[in-house]
Design a protein that fits this description.
By secondary structure, the chain is of the alpha+beta class. It has three domains: 3-50 and 142-234, Gyrase A, domain 2, CATH 3.30.1360; 53-138, Alpha-Beta Plaits, CATH 3.30.70.1400; 281-366, Beta Barrel (Elongation Factor Tu (Ef-tu), domain 3), CATH 2.40.30. Helices cover 20% and strands 35% of the residues. The chain contains eight helices and 20 strands. The protein has helices at residues 8-13, 33-42, 62-69, 117-128, 152-157, 204-215, 225-234, 269-278; strands spanning 3-4, 17-21, 24-29, 44-48, 53-58, 82-88, 94-104, 107-112, 134-137, 143-148, 172-177, 180-185, 194-199, 220-223, 282-289, 300-303, 306-317, 322-330, 339-344, 347-354. The strands form four sheets. Strands 11-12-13-10-4-14 form a six-stranded mixed beta sheet. It has a six-stranded antiparallel barrel with strand order 15-18-17-16-19-20. It has a five-stranded antiparallel beta sheet with strand order 6-7-8-5-9, covered by helices on one side. α2 packs across α7 (225-234). The N and C termini lie far apart (43 Å).
């Protein structure tokens, strides 16, 4: 049986195309992937991301547990601050990427990928057993909406008395949204300014509908998984299962900036330290196609006539009007400007390594 978010009926009522995603019935598009993508870049888009998993870590040893399990330095967080981080195994492989929210010194909220929530929770529980801490899977207690785009603050501000410009990037606050108690964080997965809104599932439809009404004349569109994927790819944000997994390390995935080897011991630290000292043999790169044909996920990557890997993420980029992607290449072929080929339905098509992110927003507000 596929799971449904509290907003399933709302999606169906406005004609969303529903697909199976990680065991959930999720909207892949409403008006279409391109108009939805462009709304996020030029106005605002509203996404249902209630399928994401949430884990609470509560107790005197909460900080110690999260510090042991994740690669970033949780000790640097203040109350209500958030951090992007990675769960690694003993070999340094990526179990999952996640957001860590410090609510207070003895209460952390972890937001993990839907496809990994069960696996992640089991891993966390296993490591919590020896500490004075309780780990709870509270995914069912939250609905999560993502309001993204240059007009996101303008739209959300109409429904809140809280001064939203006082919430910095990667911080959160308890905020009333149209009278409903929520936790609002200035985070997202699109490369734009915006917010993620945690609320009680029973309040999700009210907040969803009110945002759509308030945002209608400001260009807001409901957005599905297709636009979520193309916006995150333009911003070169990694997708677990495509651009990283337990066979790749954060350094290979270009995420070495969230690996704090100096913070003390954590799971996978020795393997990651060794890799840093010995050097990478491969790493992920961004590329552009030198042809009108787009490279798709899984297409073979060819160098000197030999297959050296596959495209991890590939798509047309609606805002940039280019065909872009991410792929792992041998380290000696990763310099910007390096050319290689991608096998597109039996035809070898030229691509070249480019700097990432492909897209970087130029403005914060409209």
């Amino acid at each position: 049986m596929l799971k449904r978010t509290p907003l399933y009926e709302s999606h169906s009522a406005i004609g969303a195309k529903i697909v199976d995603f990680a065991g959930w019935e999720m909207p892949v598009q409403y008006s279409g992937p391109i108009p939805e993508h462009m709304a996020v870049r030029e106005a605002a888009g509203l996404f249902d991301v209630s399928h994401m998993g949430e884990v609470e870590i509560i107790g005197a040893d909460a900080l110690e547990l999260v510090q042991r399990l994740t690669t970033n330095d949780v000790s640097k967080l203040a109350d209500n601050q958030a951090q992007y981080s990675i769960l690694t195994n003993e070999q340094g492989g990526v179990i999952d990427d996640l957001l860590v929210y410090r609510i207070n010194a003895e209460y952390f909220l972890l937001v993990v990928n839907a496809a990994n929530s069960g696996k992640d929770f089991a891993w966390i529980k296993q490591h919590a057993a020896s500490l004075n801490v309780e780990a709870k899977d509270v995914s069912a207690a939250y609905a999560l909406l993502a309001l993204q785009g240059p007009r996101a603050e303008l739209i959300l501000q109409e429904l809140s008395d809280h001064m939203l410009d006082h919430i910095p990037y990667y911080w959160s606050q308890k905020v009333k949204v149209d009278g409903v108690e929520c936790r609002v964080s200035r985070t997202g997965y699109t490369g734009e300014d915006g917010f993620e809104i945690f609320c009680d599932p029973k309040d999700a439809r009210h907040i969803w509908n009110r945002l759509l009404v308030v945002g209608h004349d400001k260009g807001l569109l409901p957005c599905g998984l297709a636009a979520r994927n193309t916006t995150r790819l333009e911003a070169a944000l990694r997708l677990w299962g495509n651009d990283m997994d337990e066979t790749t390390t954060p350094m290979e995935a270009g995420l070495g900036w969230v690996v704090k080897l100096g913070k003390g011991d954590f799971t996978g630290r020795d393997a990651l330290d060794r890799q840093k000292r010995e050097g990478l043999t491969r790493k992920i790169v961004g590329f552009e196609m030198e042809d009108r044909a787009p490279a798709r996920d899984g297409y073979p990557v060819i160098i000197d006539g030999a297959e050296v890997g596959k495209v991890s993420s590939g798509s047309p980029a609606p805002y940039l009007k280019k065909n872009i992607g991410l792929a792992y290449l041998p380290i000696e072929h990763t310099a910007t400007g390096t050319r290689f080929q991608i096998n597109i339905r039996g035809r070898e098509v030229a691509a070249r390594v480019v700097e990432t992110p492909f897209y970087k927003r130029q403005r914060k507000f409209d």
